[in-house]
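Entry 12.
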Amino acid sequence: MSANTWEIDVFDDGVTLFITPVGELDVYTAPQLKEAFGRLREEHRALILEVSELTFVDSTGVQAMLNIHKAEPERFMLSGSSPPLERVLELSGMSTLFKRLTD
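Predicted 3D structure (tokens):
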């Protein structure tokens, strides 16, 4: 594994769970994304994944996002845009699957 930068920031005000991963979402980091969304409670009305800081996404990262979406289709949504993620979603035919938070 190369020494790539990876961070995951979590904002939780009890109503919104806002997750911002920075760097590569892949086989090494997808478990941390799953763990961050593990903070989900009934009281949360929105689960937001801010994707604008993602620099790479592999199939494991997409699978982690799909699992969250399947578990919480009404509350889970993406915010921002990441060219690497958009490319993977387009190639896999999933570009319209996820709800998007709009400004």
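Annotation: The mean pLDDT is 93. The chain has one domain: 6-91.
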